[in-house]
Amino acid sequence: MNVILDNPIWFALNSVNAHLGSGNDNVKLFDAAVAPFAGLSVYAPGNFKQLFDLVSPDQVVVLFYPEADLDPAPFNVVVKVPGYQMVFEGKEPEAISGEELVRLTEKDLEEMLALTKLAQPGPFAGRTIDFGGYLGIFQDQKLIAMGGQRLQTQGFTEISAICTHPDSAGKGFAGKVLNELVRNIIASGNVPYLHVRADNARAIKLYQYLGFVIRTEMYFHVIKKGIAPINNSYR
């Protein structure tokens, strides 16, 4: 059992990522422009009520919880997406030669938003780049693959937003980005981990090949005050 990995959003918002969110002693959430994630010290009715009072009427909130059975009342449940949490247990990988990896910055944000909108690796908003550590591959001055880091705590760094332009899929670009992110996180002294939808067999196979193992099931609970439709990136 690892309490940090069992409740990664909460511990990230109480440590390395604290400057990207707000909240109180029981509930915390990232700024909406950074990520839709919220964490609770304990997933209990009183804390859900506190979270309800903190979010705006149309704000979508995503919780990571290792079980499908979770009652977030008074929120409405939009969807529950089954997934896995995977932790790196392999040997430190060697660098992969070939296309140059570029550290992505604010000047690349428009292309990052366009690629994530097309490839749908998960929620990616205007300030998600503030998590830092994003790398990309360009061809003909066009961003074709990218990935970065997201939730960070003492000891663990989550890898996220691994994606490739559909026209460049199957050529090893995502694997190269992921490989370098793993190297960077290990060099920082942390253990890489990530989350993946249970139905994304292709990604799971890649992650296992590179040394990640499934630690636990993790459900992505998407909740909202209202019942209006939401973006497909949550599904």
Automatic annotation (TrEMBL):
<dbReference type="InterPro" id="IPR016181">
    <property type="entry name" value="Acyl_CoA_acyltransferase"/>
</dbReference>
<dbReference type="Pfam" id="PF08445">
    <property type="entry name" value="FR47"/>
</dbReference>
<dbReference type="GO" id="GO:0016747">
    <property type="term" value="F:acyltransferase activity, transferring groups other than amino-acyl groups"/>
</dbReference>
<protein>
    <submittedName>
        <fullName>FR47-like protein</fullName>
    </submittedName>
</protein>
<dbReference type="InterPro" id="IPR000182">
    <property type="entry name" value="GNAT_dom"/>
</dbReference>
<feature type="domain" description="N-acetyltransferase">
    <location>
        <begin position="99"/>
        <end position="235"/>
    </location>
</feature>
<dbReference type="InterPro" id="IPR013653">
    <property type="entry name" value="GCN5-like_dom"/>
</dbReference>
